[in-house]
Automatic annotation (TrEMBL):
TPR repeats lie at residues 235-268. Keywords: Signal, TPR repeat. Residues 1-18 form the signal peptide. The keyword Nucleotide-binding does not apply. This is Tetratricopeptide repeat protein. Pfam families: TPR_19 (PF14559), TPR_8 (PF13181).
Amino acid sequence: MRQPVLLTLCLMGATALAGCQGTRVAHEKRALKSVNVVDESNLSDIMLTVGDPNEAVAYFQKSSSENPDRIDLKRGLAKSLIRANKPEEAIAVWRAVVASPQGTNDDRVGLADAQMRTSDWAGTAATLNTIPPTFETFERYRLEAMVADSQKNWKKADSFYDIAAGLTNKPSGVYNNWGFSKLTRGDNAGAEKLFLEALTYDSSSFTAKNNLILSRAAQRKYDMPVIEMTQTERAQLYYTLGLAAVKQGDTSVGRELLQQAVDTSPTYFEAAERSLKALGG
């Protein structure tokens, strides 16, 4: 009697051991899968920030084709296509993301951004209109402001630029765009204030400095503003100021400013020199 009982116990023990081994293997597989997901997530973050844009596109194209149900990989593909200056291709991917059950309002903003980059203002506006007004993000209002600009709805544009500036701790680009909007409307004094505001948040922005010079030149303010600049930037800004003066008919002032550009530059300022020769200076 004892032998059959012992055999039964051994069989039960073997079965339990096999079950434990199977459970352990399953746990190990799940653990490895979790580690792979974390590693993949880190790699995706790297590809979207510091990786080469075209390499990122190739990575996300391969990964999303191998994992068609992974919406995060499609998002990565759309974003990497934007970084690679391929907005038309990004639009198709964003549309697929937005149409999926996992599509979010952030994804719709991504689609609108891609449409704006192709100058599809009507499409951008239509996409933004599908987003509820309660969804308030910096990117959403930045795009809303630019769409309002394209429609010459200045009151709405000013409101959206103001909201967007308040939703980021780096509003320099918003103030620069807002200033350029004012400049195109002919509000040169208003533009000057906004470009100065942009420089208080990013004193290295040459675009804001150059736009500031243009807004001042439009008011016939031909003196150099007191802002942080390198010697090379000073020469380039004198050049911009000189050309603006000439275009407004202030030829003698423009000639003097172009000469200052040549004198200021640490290297030979060929563009300013050519302009001076054209003016007979």
